Amino acid sequence: MRFQFLTLRRILVLLVGICLLFSTPVFAAERMVLKYSIFRESLSVKELSTFAQTGELSPSLRVNLALARQDPKAVRQYLTEPVKVNLVFLDKVLNSRIGNIILDQMSQVIYTPSRRADRQALRSALVLSASQDGQVSLLEIIKNYPTNELEVDGNRLGSAYRQLRRLQTSLEDLLNF
After folding, report:
1. 33 three-class SS
2. Based on C-alpha coordinates, what's the Rg of the chain?
3. 57 close to 65: Cβ distance less than 8 angstroms
4. pLDDT tens by residue, 35-44
5. Beta strand extents in 26-148 (DSSP E only)
6. Rounded-to-integer distance, Cα 72 and Cα 86, Å
7. Over the stretch 74-120, which tens digit does the pLDDT of each residue have?
8. Closest C-alpha among 144, 122, 146 to residue 133
9. Contact in structure between 43 and 32 (CB atoms under 8 Å)
10. In the chain, pLDDT over 90 holds for what percent of residues?
């Protein structure tokens, strides 16, 4: 009985992901608060996306990164470097004990302003990102985050990227099992 419930749950998650893929997102992040130590800057996701895609810094992002002593090239790399994933195995990992640990660690970097349902929001953003092209990047996660606003700890972007790499390794281990 438990096996049937878990299988049904995974099928439902996949169907929701596919439906989201072919529909216009009702909830998608529009604004984010980028935090570096004591500095907080509210940015549009579009502004961050432009930086990630072109390397062009908006005045506010330029000042924020300079004050935080962050290398824009490194930040851009963390945002755009894709991690290949298999959607079915991603769903299995994210709904496992190790997946919850990874989600909890990543939600220390990317999270809701209320700090509620961070794990679920991040899981949704990961599945939606992977369903688009079989890859996940931090920028895609931010764009697909299911709230109008989110917060990102800029000091820990590298850590979030390493968590994505660990997730990829976990998926590869499952595939090779």
Report:
1. strand
2. 16
3. yes
4. 887 888 898 9
5. 31-36, 39-44, 83-84, 110-111, 135-136
6. 30
7. 999 999 999 998 888 888 888 989 889 889 989 999 999 998 889 99
8. 144
9. yes
10. 41
> Which bin fits 27, alpha (ψ -120 to 50), beta or left (φ > 0)?
beta
Contact 86, 4 (CB under 8 A): no
DSSP 151: E
Three-class DSSP category at 6? helix
For residue 152, the cross-strand partners are 34, 110
Six-digit token pair at 124? 């949704």
What pTM value is reported for the model? Answer: 0.78
Question: Residue by residue, what is the 3-state secondary structure of 70-104?
Answer: CCHHHHHHHHHCCEECCHHHHHHHHCCHHHHHHHH
Q: Using the 8-state DSSP alphabet, how is residue 153 labeled?
A: E
- H/E stretch holding 152 reads strand 149-153
Residue 12 is predicted with a pLDDT of 45
Q: Residues 68, 36: contact at Cβ < 8 Å?
A: yes
Q: What is the pLDDT of residues 126-157, one digit of tens each?
A: 999 999 899 999 999 999 999 999 999 988 88
Rounded to whole angstroms, the Cα distance separating 40 from 67 reads: 11
